[in-house]
Design brief:
The complex is a heterodimer of chains A (175) and B (163).
Chain A lengths: L1 H26 L3 E10 L16 E8 L1 H4 L4 E6 L4 E6 L11 E2 L1 E5 L3 E3 L5 E12 L11 E11 L8 E12 L2
Antiparallel strand pairs in A: 1-2, 1-10, 2-3, 3-4, 4-6, 5-8, 6-7, 8-9, 9-10
Chain B lengths: L2 H23 L4 E8 L15 E8 L10 E7 L3 E8 L7 E2 L1 E6 L2 E4 L6 E5 L14 E9 L8 E10 L1
Classes of the chains: A alpha+beta (175), B mainly beta (163).
Chain lengths: 175, 163
């Protein structure tokens, strides 16, 4: 009986393995988005990170959606002239209504730092502004250009620093 | 020396300076970023067809409070290049002739020949919220003779906010 169970297990595994391989290959159709925008509408707490809360700042942005690989995370990197802020979410960065989702944050300025104040991200809007296929769906998978608007809490690893990021980006092949 | 007259003149000068300083600082400047794309073959290896170049930008839109009534000033920056242009505003979607200063590495090119042409295109709906229409813009434009390269055509797509 044990031998028949092992045989059936091996048989099931033999079927499953090719499926897993096929799935991995399909998920490797990779792309991300590159562009830029601005951060603004900051809370006073952002002064601790060196920002003027009443101003706005130019930023380059790179966005890697989980939908591109069919698996998490989704990631966004903000590039400043002398440093970066990076956020990841274990799931798609799709519009989330009024909900904030906890993610992970990392920053590279003079040092590389993992956030110890967990960033919370609200995806206010994600607008496909140009499609790859005009007749295809209005979804991130068919987006050639996209504008994304986020509200980010604990920005720059500063508790209470909240900013709005809006970025316009274009699809680029690869991860 | 007429001290009273001097003091009056100084007082007037100080007030005048103060007013000037206030006026000079009250410009409308926008900052943000986006990308360059849609380069045509004429752009050659400098701007390969199919490539996307990330940029940041500073802009003083013509007609905005404190700015030129008619000229828009814009500077765009990549990792190793800066370009500055100024062009008259057109509401009709037509081409405006731009005067340009391009800084590439150690070279400086001023008012290249042919001079660039700029044409603003319609931006998509929903990328600027209603409450921020006076302080933010999603600007998309075509540029001809981009970077001083004859017939090189590029598209600029940026999202900017007042600073």
């Amino acid at each position: 009986m044990i031998r028949s169970i092992v045989t059936r297990f091996r048989h099931a595994l033999a079927i499953a393995l090719p499926v897993l391989v096929l799935t991995s290959t399909a998920a490797q159709a990779d792309y991300h988005f590159r562009g830029g925008g601005a951060i603004y509408s900051m809370t006073d707490a952002c002064e601790a990170a060196g920002y003027d809360p009443n101003s706005a700042y130019a930023v380059s942005v790179r966005y890697s959606p989980s939908e591109a690989r069919g698996e998490p995370p989704s990631q966004v990197t903000l590039g400043f002239f002398t440093g970066t802020e990076h956020f990841s979410l274990w799931g798609p960065m799709a519009p989330s209504g009024n909900n904030f989702f906890g993610g992970a944050g990392r920053q590279t300025w003079t040092r590389f730092v993992f956030y110890n104040n967990r960033p919370l991200l609200r995806i206010v809007r994600r607008t496909v502004t140009e499609r790859v296929s005009a007749s295809g769906p209005d979804e991130i998978g068919n987006a050639r250009e996209v504008v994304m608007r986020l509200r980010i809490q604990n920005f720059s690893n500063v508790s209470g620093c909240v900013v709005t990021l809006v970025a316009t980006m274009r699809r680029v092949a690869g991860s | 020396m007429n001290l009273d007259g001097f003091r009056t003149a100084v007082a007037a000068g100080v007030v005048g300076l103060a007013m000037s300083a206030t006026s000079a600082s009250a410009v409308t400047e926008m900052v943000g970023g986006g990308f360059l794309s849609n380069f045509n073959a004429a752009c050659g290896d400098s701007w390969p067809t199919g490539s996307t170049v990330q940029i940041t930008m500073r802009m003083r839109p013509g007609g905005a409070p404190g700015n030129s009534e008619t000229l828009t000033l814009a500077s765009l920056f990549t990792g190793n290049l800066a370009m500055h242009i100024r062009y008259p505003d057109r509401d009709d979607g037509g081409w405006a002739i731009a005067s340009g200063h391009a800084i590439i590495g150690g070279d400086l090119t001023v008012n290249p020949d042919p001079m660039a042409r700029v044409r603003h295109l319609e931006s998509p709906d929903g990328t600027v919220f209603g409450f921020e229409e006076n302080v933010a813009t999603h600007a998309i434009a075509e540029v001809l003779h981009f970077g001083g390269i004859e017939n090189c055509r590029a598209r600029v797509n940026v999202w900017l906010h007042n600073r």
